[in-house]
Design a protein that fits this description.
The protein is of the alpha/beta class and 261 residues long. The chain is 39% helix and 17% strand. Strand 2, helix 2 and strand 3 form a beta-alpha-beta unit. The two termini are 32 Å apart.
């Protein structure tokens, strides 16, 4: 049974102790570790040691996120990765959305350490990418008033359009610009990534372009790469209708490739 936690508790980082196999879980842009907890619990039952950090600027106030950039998010991920390695010599990594980009970047930077990557709804290209690109120009301007620098998510304006896990209902444009920079970095790195990669996306995802996963699959240098699409699910694959199948797909992929290397 999933652990019953309050909303505030679910926004916090979590960890499960385990054996020689470890997994780092990275949440998405504006999200919290809560969205990765179902995978963490499933892997813990299989004996994995699990780390799921809260990335800088997340889980507090959206203004805090506005003051951060992707290298800061990645630095926190690397700290947890290093700590995990001190206890579990064999390690894998899974990320959702922006977290998937960080996971791929880590696989590029640490190819000998990462046994496998699961990239869920990877944010290489957004459904409204052209609109998001405007944020890059705004990031070069002097400080803007809040109403111009932080915008409300479309899902927050729609009744019932929210999510089960804690997340901001607003997006700071300067941080969005940094995520776009991360997109570009990862896109350039894909041919050099040779780690086994599982790509998972949802047929009802209104955040990520349906072209994102196929583009990653085509560009990856990995010999082993798999793409699973769950047509009934949206962006937060870990809490949608196909969540049990998504979690099993990730856990099975990790089991297979941790044993194979």
């Amino acid at each position: 049974m999933p652990i019953d936690l309050s909303r505030d508790e679910r926004a916090r980082p979590f960890r499960f102790d385990g054996g020689e196999i470890g997994c780092l879980l990275l949440h998405g842009f504006t999200g919290t570790p809560s969205e990765m907890r179902p995978i963490g619990e499933a892997l813990a039952k299989r004996g994995y040691a699990v780390r799921a950090p809260l990335l800088p600027g997340h889980g507090t106030r959206v203004e805090d996120l506005a003051a951060t950039t992707w290298p800061q998010w990645f630095a926190t991920a690397m700290d947890e990765w290093t700590d995990l390695g001190s206890r579990s010599p064999r390690r894998v990594i899974a990320g959702l959305s922006m977290g998937a980009l960080l996971a791929l970047h880590l696989a590029h930077d640490r190819p000998r350490e990462v046994r496998a990557v699961a990239a869920l709804a990877p944010a290489l290209e957004l459904n409204r990418q052209r609109n998001a690109e405007i944020a890059r120009w705004l990031s070069w301007l002097p400080a803007l008033p809040r109403r111009a620098a932080i915008v409300t998510k479309r899902s927050a304006k729609v009744p019932g359009g929210g999510r089960l896990t804690p997340a901001y209902d607003e997006i700071p444009l300067r941080s969005l610009a940094s995520m776009i920079a991360l997109q570009r970095r990862v896109r350039a790195e894909l041919p050099a990534i040779t780690t086994p990669v599982l790509l998972v996306d949802g047929g009802r995802d209104d955040t990520i372009s349906p072209a994102a996963s196929p583009a990653i699959e085509a560009a990856l240098g990995s010999v082993v790469k798999s793409h699973r699409r769950f047509e009934r699910s949206g962006h937060i694959l870990t809490e949608d209708v196909d969540a049990p199948a998504v979690i099993d797909a990730v856990a099975d992929f990790f089991d297979e490739h941790v044993a194979a290397r």
